[in-house]
Design goal:
233 residues, alpha+beta, 6 strands, 33% helix, OBAP-like
């Protein structure tokens, strides 16, 4: 069979290549039973939001964060394009406390973004696991959002899935967060409600309801060096 007649994607995503063989599946299953995946097993939170390209604020992409807490001041997250088993790893994000952020050089601080708007608008969510009562999960999520709101994030995406790249191509892209409704409209002129409509349906969430529940989160005193992508554009 010629390559032209073979499957051009892997198990339903848009990654080029043939489906995994039985041999590959058997080897992977055996390895998963024997090897120790300690670093990955430390992931303790799934967050969903959108990242915007620092070099082009008219472009944004959905981001599923799978995060590990290294300390109370430092978190690290793997960024996937979906929560499915064949999701593509598209980037990484580091989150640090204001205390750590203040110690960074000025030029370094310009690479980091804030999270307050994501949190208070309801854009940033923790998708609920099945079987957990809504009231219980909402309380846990709101508490987590209170912790995330003051953190600074530094994010690079390696795979520009929004432009249809079949594999990671080009230089890593510095990403930022939305900081206002106006910044959302630059990337998505129809506005925040429209941007989140499909995401909300898939995860069964209502960002307006979440925004209401988060009104009690204290305002964040943001460092003027953060979110520099908006100052430069």
């Amino acid at each position: 069979m010629s390559n032209d007649n073979k499957s051009s994607c892997c198990e339903g995503n848009e990654v080029p290549g043939d489906p995994r063989t039985l041999k590959s599946r058997v080897l992977e299953t055996g390895a998963s039973m024997i090897q120790d995946f300690t670093p990955v097993k430390q992931i303790c939170a799934h967050l969903n939001a959108f990242h915007v390209y620092a070099s082009d604020p008219t472009r944004c992409v959905e981001a599923n964060h799978y995060c590990t807490h290294l300390t109370e001041d430092v978190r690290q997250c793997l960024i996937y394009d979906s929560p499915e088993k064949n999701a593509r790893l598209i980037g990484v994000e580091y989150m640090i406390s204001p205390r750590i952020f203040a110690t960074l050089p000025t030029e370094e601080r310009k690479l980091w973004h804030t999270h307050e708007f994501e949190v208070k608008s309801g854009m940033l969510v923790m998708p609920a696991p099945a079987g957990v009562p809504d009231a219980v999960w909402e309380a846990a999520e709101t508490a987590e959002m209170q912790d995330v709101a003051p953190l600074y994030g530094k994010t690079y995406h390696f795979w520009q899935v929004d432009r249809g790249d079949p594999v990671p191509m080009g230089e890593p892209q510095l990403m930022g967060s939305f900081t206002s409704n106006e910044s959302v409209e630059v990337a998505h002129p129809a506005g925040l409600d429209s941007l989140l409509e499909d995401r909300n349906k898939r995860f069964g969430v209502d960002h307006l309801q979440k925004a209401k529940k988060r009104e009690g989160i204290e305002p964040v005193e943001k460092h003027p060096d953060a979110d520099s992508m908006y100052k430069s554009t």
